[in-house]
């Protein structure tokens, strides 16, 4: 770790190009790192992303730490080694960053939370009303901040069961029945580091998606058909 002599800030700034006014020094720890970028002069770390929700918009902010490393030979060498290591691992990435077709193990045992916008999107997609989607497909449990209104139902009361919208008879044949309208939680789900993957599935086999999910309509006497 480098120690900055606070009595020689101007000299340090001149030599390194880094701002060192005491009020600009941010001594808080880096937490929840979102992105690390390395160019030929700087390492930039984006962290602590925060979403502030307003009535009709979200404001996303993050903090940033930039280190100008190119005048530190030991650091340059270390960065070179990291880049080389990353290059070697890049060969494995196509296998690691994509789900094997038809897996969808995460659509069981995982309960995607839904916001009002998610419910409305699913309702529009299925040709139902907001209330119908809430009643038929959502376990209503508003979050403390009021943003989420509940989570998607399973086909039974067992939380490890399949999502009500999951189609396909077995692993390797699964697909999401409301894919274009799926909740934000599902869109955000990353396969990187996923431990639920069904490793028996071939990654390069052809996979044909079947019919989309169709809601059960109620007849006039209230029965489903
Ligand atoms: S690999 Fe993981 S993230 Fe991808 S579908 Fe399977 S369980 Fe879900
Ligand atoms: S909505 Fe689709 S992607 Fe999300 S859990 Fe259900 S089946 Fe999976």
Structure description:
By secondary structure, the protein is α+β, with helices and mostly antiparallel strands. It has 2 domains: 6-91, no CATH class; 105-188, no CATH class. Helices cover 24% and strands 20% of the residues. Strands 1-2-3 form a 3-stranded antiparallel beta sheet, with no helix packed on it. Helix 4 (116-126) crosses helix 5 (130-137). The longest helix has 18 residues, at 73-90. The mean pLDDT is 82. Bound molecules: iron/sulfur cluster (2 copies). The site of one iron/sulfur cluster has 10 residues, from loops.
Please provide a brief summary of the model.
The protein is an alpha+beta fold and 225 residues long. The protein is 24% helix and 20% strand.
